[in-house]
Design a protein that fits this description.
The chain is mainly alpha-helical and about 260 residues long. The chain folds into 3 domains: about 60 residues, no CATH class; about 80 residues; about 70 residues, no CATH class. About 55% of the residues lie in helices and about 5% in strands. It contains 12 helices and 4 strands; from the N terminus they run H-E-E-H-E-H-E-H-H-H-H-H-H-H-H-H. The strands form 2 sheets. The chain has a two-stranded antiparallel ribbon with strand order 1-2. Strands 3-4 form a two-stranded parallel ribbon. Strand 1 and strand 2 form a beta hairpin. Helix 5 runs antiparallel to helix 6. The longest helix has 18 residues. It is globular, with a radius of gyration of 22 Å. The protein starts with a helix and ends with a helix. The C terminus is likely disordered.
Amino acid sequence: MSPNTDDVLDEVLRMQSQKGRPRPQFKRLHADMTRSDPDDSAVTLDGRVGVFSWLAHERQTRATSGSQQRPVICLMDGEHKLWERKDQLLGEGVVEILDFWHFLERLREVSKLLCDTDAAAESFVKDRLARVLNGELGRVIGGLRQMSSKRRQSKHGLSRKACETIASAVTYFENNRHRMNYGDYLRDGYPIASGIIEGSCRHVVEDRLDRTGMRWSLTGALAMLRQPNRQPERRLGRLRNLPHQTRATATVPRSNVEETRSRLS
């Protein structure tokens, strides 16, 4: 049974996680890092290309295996480069979904600028979320433009920075409008938010690479990221047997780990 609007609102607006939530199953994870080509330091290897190439191979393998075809869903934030890589390497026939949490984050920013109290802002967010889930995104965008215009002309006014923030959010919604048919996605049983992905990022990136005192060579960090994500006790046993040269010989900058975490989210 697909969740309805009230279910989604209850989930995203609650202060504590619901108990007894179903656990994700059959996850397959893949991670990569943007890095310099070891054979030519002037060339940068884009980690996004690595991830989407892996996805394209998985899709092709499924198509040629004779197994039942299932929809391919691409759930990401609005970063242009991500969708550009998706178009280049996955092509058409993919269901594109803008992460609901990124939409909610932008909407909350706007609510704080257009509403005078926290209670009013929370009511504003809840009302707009319900409308969008019911297929009224166009009206919500139009309403935001109208409210912004009226607020600028009122005695309270809006600062230049506030106007820019609201305009940026409206443009973000417009540019991703075709990826925000959340009511349809829910009816089809598709995910609309990245909670499972965020949790996987913590497991694959933070827990493996970013603990206190850890230092990695680039080769060792990539080897760790690409370890299979099943049966962790067997995986750790294999890692202990990695050749010594894959271990710490130079430090991977923390920024690279942060970039990897960001791309996976």
